[in-house]
Amino acid sequence: MRKFKNWKMLTSAALVGASALTLAACSGGSGSGSTTAATTTTASQGSGTTTAAASTQSSGDASDLSNTLVYAGEGTDSINPILDTHGELTTIVFDGLLKLDANGKPVEGLAESYEFDEGSNKYTFKLRSGVKWHDGEEFNADDVVYTYDTIKKDETLSASATSNYEDISEIKKVDDSTVEITLSEYNAPMLTYFTLGILPEHLYKGQDLSTTELNQAPVGTGKYKFVSWDADGGMITFEKNEDYYGKVPNIDRLVYKTVGDETTKATMIQSGEADLAWLNSKYASTFDGKSGFTEWVFTTADYRGASMDMPSVFWKDNADSIGVLNYAIDKESIVENVLVGDGEYAYSPIQRNPLGTNKEADIYTYDVNKFHEEMAKLGWTQGSDGIYERNGQKFHFTIQTRDYEEERVDIANVMSDMLKQVGVDMEVVLVPKFDWKAGYDGFLAGYATEFDPDMIYKQFVTGASDNSRGYSNAEVDRILKEARHEKDEAKRKQLYGEFEKVYAENPSILLVVYLDGNYVGTDALSGLDTTRVLGHHAVGVMWNIEDWTLNR
User: Fold this and answer.
1) Residues 6+ apart with CB under 8 A from 234
2) All structural domains of the chain
3) C-alpha angle with apex 352: 350 to 354, nearest 5 degrees?
4) How far is CA 137 from CA 173, 201, 214, 255, in A?
5) CB neighbours of 158 closer than 8 A, spacing ≥ 6?
6) CA-CA distance, 260 to 266, in Å (whole number)?
7) What does pTM read for this prediction?
8) Do β-strands 5-6 and 178-183 pair in parallel, antiparallel, or remain unpaired?
9) pLDDT, tens digit, for every residue of 164-210?
10) How many C-beta atoms surround the C-beta of residue 90 within 10 A?
């Protein structure tokens, strides 16, 4: 793992050049057109329509980009906290009743205080007064009730997070500043889930949450206001919320550039076209020792592995043979060669969670001889071509991998090579985006459980809202439901340790590696706090963006 690095700023002349490149990035599209954000998508907020030019002038001269941060991020098609549970932008536009601190623990957000009555399993939230939506309307209890009613009662809603809220039995407005939320039974991680971003009822009510234009022109109460979305140019612009109830950010504007591939992100950082980006380990390592750049290395809970589509024809017949594949994968070699040492081998979906890390679940070692022994026990024999067969079926399965994610492609190809050498044909299929209906046997997946370990509930419990690959295990269901409703922290840790062992024996994901989170940017930027464990795709870096500063 590379440590935090900070190299002194470039010379004044070089900084002028970097600023000029940043100016070009903000005013020219990276797609087929060169239209600026000021002349494209605008946001209708309340009674007025705001353009980027008008909005940037409210925070200073629009031509002065010295206090504008350009972030090279991944593509997105919506900013909505209910639909997008691991997006970076939702957290700066929307606030929840609670928010997560540096250690991932829930603290007060839009609620200035709360109480919990154990007898009735009722939370009472006292809301902050004087909080305004970005369109100037007052925030109140109706907005909270609308948001939670939507995620609980909207039967047309397709959202991965709904299982997090299944224990809520009643949401009640007491008065404009008080909300009661009652649970059907005790739910240990519920405070973490109360960080869900609140939507403004006066704008979203009556709209189809999946298709509303507000997903591309969001209105929240958060630290930054949406200004414009230049879809052709791949640029979303925000300005700081001067009326924010907490600390107002130091950086006036944020320009989020949606970037299609990792090479481009690295090039943008190198050229000065972007000020900050999450880079894969190989690209991040190219900045080691380079003057003018800073690298921040975060711990993440982000793992990679081949996630099997359990209802597929192949895995319906051969689910008993997923775990044995671990013996044939040299995971430490992948860490050293693909991740250049920035990570660790994976054995559990909650391995980097404080309530996980049960080493008794680390039951597989890289051992080719052991692999062949276990395959024989399962009834597999090698055919004349060296590929294992059973019941007239070749051990051949397809794993789709997005072609622009170079690190995933590398991991998938190395896995495929290792498995082929021992008689298993894992075919890697490169796709521009994941296609869940195309009949592939799985995909090169990434997930993270960076906060409460109950985050895996919706992924692994039978029929849960994010269990998209159809995993089902009665013992896993029992353990995760019991852990969700257990009050004693030590007992919860014991239960999650049990889960890790049970899942290791009957997995749906061929776990390979955990990634470190490597962010690289201009050394004019400071204030990033690496205390926080980040999530999937190293999301969460902006958790303390109000403390960041640019000193060009």
Assistant:
1) 29, 30, 31, 75, 257, 258, 259
2) 299-515 (3.10.105.10)
3) 85
4) 18, 11, 16, 25
5) 210
6) 12
7) 0.88
8) unpaired
9) 999 999 999 999 999 999 999 999 999 999 999 999 999 999 999 99
10) 23
